[in-house]
Amino acid sequence: MSAFNSAFRKGFVGRAIGILASASAVASAVDSHRRPNSRQLRQLGIDPAQFGRIRLD
Fold it and tell me: Which of 8, 14, 22, 25 is at 20 to 30 A from 32, Cα to Cα?
């Protein structure tokens, strides 16, 4: 396997795991009626300012 393919796979897998971790953390925060971390929202493609308008009652 070339160095390029190896780096691509490690990068892809690392990003995928990061996205899954962010999704889990955001879901947990919403479930417990807390505001999720802005960085995690941005990683999921959600605008933190718009998310702040959502009521978590």
Answer: 14
